[in-house]
TrEMBL record:
This is Alpha-hydroxy-acid oxidizing protein. Gene3D superfamilies: Aldolase class I (3.20.20.70). Signal peptide: none annotated. Its cofactor is FMN. Belongs to the FMN-dependent alpha-hydroxy acid dehydrogenase family. Keywords: Flavoprotein, FMN, Oxidoreductase. The keyword Oxidoreductase applies. It comes from Kribbella deserti.
Amino acid sequence: MTDRQIPRWSELKPLLRPKPLTLDPTERRLSKALTIADLRAIAKRRTPRSVFDYTDGAAEREISLGRARRLFAEMELRPSILRDVSDIDTGTTMLGKRSAQPFAFAPTGFTRMMNHEGESAVVRVADRAGIPYALSTMGTTSIEDVAAAAPNARKWFQLYVWKDRDSGEDLVKRAASAGYEALMLTVDVPVAGARLRDVRNGFTIPPSLTAKTVLDAASHPAWWMNLLTTKPLTFASLSSWDGTVAELLDKLFDPTMTIDDLAWLRSIWSGPLIVKGIQTAEDARRVVDAGADAIVLSNHGGRQLDRAPTPLRILPEVSKAVGDNAEVYLDTGIMSGADIVAALALGADACLVGRAYLYGLMAGGERGVQRSADILSAEIRRTMALLGVRQVSDLNPDHVRLPQ
């Protein structure tokens, strides 16, 4: 028989640890986000459906994006035990300079639409995190304003080649004058992919005030208030557009571009050149032979050709094809630091993340982007320690097993 007694106050008092009251609603929201998936869930609640779907969605049946995320989820990490992991270094080298983390913030279009703080918030977080940030041609903050927002950040400029080559050349020259370190050419958008969520939502840039969106405003008043009371969305050389994103891309971008046009880019840009949108080993070799300093193995986050190759699956083949002739980065489907570690082990020099920080931006502005960076950084550090790895260069294919 168990003897029982009434607990004394002196015994109860040490057990009572009430959580401090957080008055700031943004801090309160973000403190509950332990993963990128948590940030995604918050973003979905706080953002109009059409805007969230633009960020979250992919092309056609979204098979490419689903495959990429499933492969990361189903891959197996293989630890090596009894290793000294008291001091973990998550830093690496990107384009000859140290990055504090093995990832960069990818270029994303229309970023101020997700949250009014937009690209300026993202580049400030990148600066604090010690990682590069790539500004998109379709960004909603100017090249110069992004540079002014974080003068010491590592800034790359992502270029789509326009039908109007003079306009593209002007953008490149402005990026050079503003101190951007590298030029990233995206090559997988000869025409726009079929992003069916946008079509079904009647999504335009900026979102139109229709009966449907006015009703939606009742559920997301803060987002609409910020949109309507801050500087209007503008990008590149356009001040407005009343069609879909796909129609805009088809109007602006040049489908006649070929590998020979890399020579034109080299004639107007003297810094490092990254080519984004590589999906085969053969194309990786072609663009490196044509002068690329780095490639991004990417299917555009599943937003272009559905059923495209899954970047993580073909990474070992591409890495072998490129060798030491160029750096290999990877994007698409990354939702955790463990995903990044797996890509590094299979041959990537670094990763680019896009949706991961956009979910944070939608969830809480600049503080949400910071939360996403902190989550990824902590997950990378923890995964490396559990694998028995002290530095990024120690990761190798033995640490990962992909499903057949």
